Amino acid sequence: MSTATGSPADRVTALELQVLAHRGWPAVEQWEGRELPGWTLRAAGGFTRRANSALPIGGLGPGGTPRAAAPPATAADFRAAADALRAWYAERGLPAYVQVCGGTEDARLDAVLAELGWVAETPTELHTGPLAPLTGSGPGPGSGPVSGSGSGEEPAGVLLTRSVDAGWAALYHRAGTLDATSLAVLTGGPSVWFATVPGADGRPEAIGRCVVDGAWAGFSGIEVRPDRRRRGLARRVMAALADRARSEGAVHGWLQVEADNAPALRMYAGLGFRRHHGYHYRRAVGTG
């Protein structure tokens, strides 16, 4: 995978970030078999493409470390494995997806999948940025009154918990109710925190999720109630989560955002996050 240049967060490779994202949004079922050498297949009842797609990063060993193996490099190689991949997902009633990272290494894989008729979907960007400016303890976007103290205490009015309650689930954009499989994905990861800004009417005004993994913190599920937008609530949620992540040793942040989500892209840019690389999904024709 390619390596970006610039800040320490930019110098991390796309492969390393893929592994972080994989650990931070874990599927409830993972499979690596001889029929598909060099792949990790993931399933979670259809809850998000991230947790229900094949990841061609050489397979994952103990602790999520990628093994030194490559996915099939030619159309002939992939055709030999495609039936097993399709069958694995079909057995679970799921469409067959492959997550394809941008860059020269995956360009060949992407071309093979396109040749086989797999449809490209959901172009997404992975952004990285420093945590210190978010918490007000360093220069840059996000520092100031809205960002918290940098001392590990969340900004006023933001509650942090280890679990998802009914209010958080109701505001989460993917589902008003979350089943056990979805909750297993959301609560999975090395050190997961959920943020809520309680509203006067008893409903959350804003929510967010963060998973801390060593020097990195991954943000997701940042949502604000439509009638409470443009009040800085998303920034407060990010600041609270960043504070907690820093208290556990994290220095850098990462997040994933769909490429056509202009409001989110502007907000994250204002918080100091910059595009590291892009990825998309290829779906097997006739599935999904």
TrEMBL record:
Residues 137-151 have a biased composition (Gly residues). InterPro entries: Acyl_CoA_acyltransferase (IPR016181), GNAT_dom (IPR000182), Rv0428c-like_C (IPR056935). Residues 129-156 are annotated as: Disordered. PROSITE patterns: GNAT. Keywords: Ribonucleoprotein, Ribosomal protein. Coiled coil: none annotated. Gene3D superfamilies: 3.40.630.30. The keyword Coiled coil does not apply. GO terms for cellular component: ribosome. Residues 155-288 form the N-acetyltransferase domain. Pfam families: Rv0428c_C (PF24553). It comes from Allostreptomyces psammosilenae. This is Ribosomal protein S18 acetylase RimI-like enzyme. It comes from the Bacteria. GO terms for molecular function: acyltransferase activity, transferring groups other than amino-acyl groups.
